[in-house]
Amino acid sequence: MLNAMGLLKQRRFLPLFTTQFLGAFNDNLFKTSMVLFATYAIFNDPHMETNFNALATGIAILPFFLFSALAGQLADSHDKARIIRIVKTAEIGIMLLGAAGLMVARAGLPTLGVGLMLGAVLFLGVHSTFFGPIKYAILPQHLKPHDVLGGTGLVEAGTYLAILLGTIVAGYVPIEGAAILVLVVAAIGWFAARFVPPAPREGPRLTLNYNPFSASWRLIRTTMHIPRLFLAICAISFFWTIGAVLIIIFPPLVKNVLTADKMVASGAIAVFSVGVAIGSVVINTMLRGRISARYSPLSVIAMGGFVVVFSLLCRTWVPAPPGQFYDWTQFVAQPRSIPIMLSLLAIATTGGMFVVPLYAFLTTTVEKDQTARTVAANNVVNSGAMTLGSIAAIGINLAGVQPVDMLFLVAAMCLISAWIAQRLHRACD
Prior knowledge:
The protein is mostly helical. Helices cover 80% and strands 0% of the residues.
C-alpha cells in the first residue's frame, strides 16, 4: 500500500481517486444527516423511526437490484470516463433535491421534506449503481499491470475513510450546513471528474439488454451455477442482509435505548467503518495472502456472540433523565459506555473478517473476462437480499418487536451465515 501512494501524484489515478472519495463522502454525509435529522427532529416514535430507516435503506438498495446488469454492460461498451462525467453531473441535481428536502423539513413541512429526501436517496442509489463497476474496471486501462493491485487498495482505503469522515461530519454540522456542504462537495466532485483520462471500450461491441429483469436473471443464471460462486454469493448476501437490519435499527436504538444525542449516534456508526477495516487487516494477516474461507464460520459466529453481548449491555443501560439526551462527555461517563463501544467495534471487526475472504472468491474463481459480470451478479443478489431484509425489518417492527430484541434475530442469522461459509470452506479448501 505504501508503494502505491505514488499513484496519488499521477493524473492517470488522482482524479479518479478524488472523484470516488468525494462521491462516497457526499453519499454518506447526506444519508447519515437525513437519518439523524429524521430520528431526532422529525419523528418522535420509535416505530416510525425504525420504519423510516428501513424504507430509506430499501430505497437506496433497490437500484442495485434493478440496474446492476445494465450498469456493467454500459461500463464495458462505452467510454468509462464519459460515464463518470455524466454520473457526477447528475449528482449535483440529486443533491439539490436532497438539500431542498432537508430545508423544507427544517422549515416545518416534514411530509414534503421526507418525500424529497427519499427521492434523493433513490436517485443516489441509481448514481452509485452506475458508478460502482467503473471504479474498478477503469483501473486496468489507466494503470500498469503491477500498479492495479495498489490502485485497487487505495480506492478501497479511500472509500472507507470517506465513509468514516462523512458519518462523523454528519453528526456535528447543523442541518443547514449539511444542505450546503453536499452541494459544494458535489460541485468539487464534478470538477475532479473533468480530469479523468479517457477509457474507451475494449473488445467487441456489446448488444445491450435494457430489460432490468431479464438482464439480471441472465447474469445470475450464468454465474450461480458454479457451486463455489453460489455459496460465496449466498454467504455475502446473508451477511449484508444482517448489515441492513443493523443499519435500520441502530439510530433509533441509540436515541431511545441509550438515550444519546446524534453526535454519539454518528460516532458509534463510524466505529463500524473502523472495525471493518481492522477486520480486513487481521484476516489478511491470519490467512497470509491465501484465499480461503477457513476462518469465516468462526468469525461470523463470534460476530453473533458480540451482537448478543451488545443487546444485553443495552438492556442494563441507565437512561438519561426524561426529555434529555447524553452528549459525548455524559455518555462516556456512564459505566457501560466503553463495553458498549468495544462490543460494536468487535461486531464490525469480526464481520470484516467474515466477508473479506468471500469477496476474493468472486475475482479468483472465474476467468478474468468474467470477473465484472460475477461482481455484478453478486451485487444483484446482495441488493435483493438487503431489500428483503429491509421489508422484513419493517414487518417485525410493526409486530411490536423492539430494536433491542431484534438483535437476537441478527445473532440467529449469523449462525445461518456460518453454516453457508462452512459449506464453502469444505467445497474449496
